[in-house]
Design goal:
The structure holds two protein chains of two kinds. Chain A has no helices and twelve strands. By secondary structure, chain A is an all-beta fold. The radius of gyration of chain A is 13 Å and the shape is globular. Chain B is mainly β. Chain B has a single domain, classed as Immunoglobulin-like. Helices cover about 0% and strands about 50% of the residues of chain B. Chain B has no helices and eleven strands. In chain B, a hairpin with a 5-residue loop joins β4 and β5. Classes of the chains: A mainly beta, B mainly beta. Chains A and B meet through β6 and β11 of A and β5, β9 and β10 of B.
């Protein structure tokens, strides 16, 4: 089964600074990868996804992620964070290829300081 | 995209009671998924609900504790039975979009068991 690992539990960034959240996947072939955001008291919203093709994926809210096969990574980036970006971020992948069951990473909580 | 409505959004329940969570989708979908998010944790898939058949439960979850109904292609319920404080979680309903692999989530039902 596929899985993802988010090594950072909590990250604090100053408003206006750049951001990178790490995600590593375990799967031999090209995985399907997702980044979701969960704002306080809210459900999950899809930021972006990668299935194939261009390894740099653009998402909503100014986020992007880059698929790097050599590093088994799918890191999420944003050049300049806003206070409203404070949330929990989850990397996810399909549990098994061919179905829609997601396996989530443990999440990274992002705190923004003024 | 899909619009998913969950009820209740939150509830406080007594130990030993049961609560049914409803999930309504604005379009017909084949599979619906129920996830649990325990406090400070990531999301764990409870079961997959297909219309017209019994739900498929993940390891560690059983039908007696989490009975699920799926009477039609736009609606599902999850019941948390004989609740204990350990059941205090956010329960989220999600639906897929088939070939795109994208999942949409409801805002969740936050359950507190005293």
């Amino acid at each position: 089964a596929q899985s993802v690992t988010q090594p950072d539990i909590h990250i604090t960034v100053s408003e206006g600074a750049s951001l990178e959240l790490r995600c590593n996947y375990s799967y031999g072939a090209t995985p399907y990868l997702f980044w979701y955001v969960q704002s306080p008291g809210q459900g999950l919203q899809l930021l972006l996804k990668y299935f194939s093709g261009d390894t740099l994926v653009q998402g909503i809210k100014g986020f992007e992620a880059e698929f790097k096969r050599s590093q088994s990574s799918f890191n999420l980036r944003k050049p300049s964070v806003h206070w409203s970006d404070a949330a929990e971020y989850f990397c996810a992948t399909f549990t098994n290829f061919g179905n829609e069951k997601l396996t989530f990473g443990t999440g990274t909580r992002l705190t923004i300081i003024p | 995209s899909a619009v998913i409505s969950q009820k209740p959004s939150r509830d406080i329940c007594q130990r030993g009671t049961s609560l049914t969570i409803q999930c309504q989708v604005d379009s017909q979908v084949t599979m619906m998924f129920w996830y649990r998010q325990q406090p400070g944790q990531s999301l764990t898939l409870i079961a997959t609900a297909n219309q017209g058949s019994e739900a498929t439960y993940e390891s560690g979850f059983v039908i007696d504790k989490f009975p699920i109904s799926r009477p039609n292609l736009t609606f599902s319920t999850l019941t948390v039975s004989n609740m204990s404080p350990e059941d205090s979680s956010i329960y989220l309903c999600s639906v897929g979009r088939g070939a795109t692999g994208e999942l949409f989530f409801g805002e969740g039902s936050r359950l507190t068991v005293l």
